[in-house]
Design brief:
Distance between the termini: 36 Å
Shape: globular
Structural class: alpha/beta
CATH superfamily: NAD(P)-binding Rossmann-like Domain
Oligomer: single chain
CATH class: Alpha Beta
CATH topology: Rossmann fold
Order of helices and strands: HEHEHEHEHEHEEHEHEHH
Helix content: 40-55%
Strand order of the largest sheet: 3-2-1-4-5-6-9
Number of domains: 1
Amino acid sequence: MANHFNNKVVWITGASSGIGEALAYALSAAGAKLILSSRRLPELERVKQGCSVPGQVQLLPLDLSDTDSLQDKTIEAIKCFGGIDIMVHNGGVTQRSLVIDTEIEVHRRLMELDYFSYVVLTKALLPHFIEKRAGHFVVTSSVMGKIGTPMRSAYAAAKHALHGFFDCLRAEVTADNIKVTILTPGYIRTNISLYAVTNKPYGLGKPSENIENGLPADRAAKQIMKAIKGGKFEAYVGKFSSERIGLWLNRLLPSVLTRIAPRLVPK
């Protein structure tokens, strides 16, 4: 594992917590050079100091909702180490509310953060990958990018959109030796549910029981690195759980999944 990532330059968005933070530690230990991005510079500094080789870590604060800034941020990222080998799209937010209660502004916010920012960054970085005829886009989607359950309409819509875009991109750039891996994490033990967008002004503000019982983020990072090394088109990340069963049902027996979906409300 270590040899594959040694001296590779990896840019991670959403790197200040959760999966992004755990992946930063694991990749640093494997010898990668890192560019870490999120809005919170103090948290990025903390993550940098927790890496095995802080001297091989560059910080690039950015706001994914400010899509007009992302072209310039990509130029800055390339300059950090003179090139980028792997782009890990990982930033974003989740959502918890019924369709009837979800304001259209919530849908727009989720699409801007969880979909359009990924598209803008990808289009900004793609010429660099094409020029060097190598590169790897790693996209953090979700099980909700493949199935639908109550309370997740805006989030699922944005994640479903990622699959469509990046599947098309893969078909276009495979001949240029550019890889695309879409990750479909299940419940991972992070603080993402604390900041879930709801129909209330300040979000959910409490941990989700399912998230609390999920796969630890450091173990998720190991699964992700294995998927990247293997050049997987798509990879489930998480425990063997009802979510993985849901993915199978969606493919093989979608009518069964539809009947049980109302019982899959996040706790």
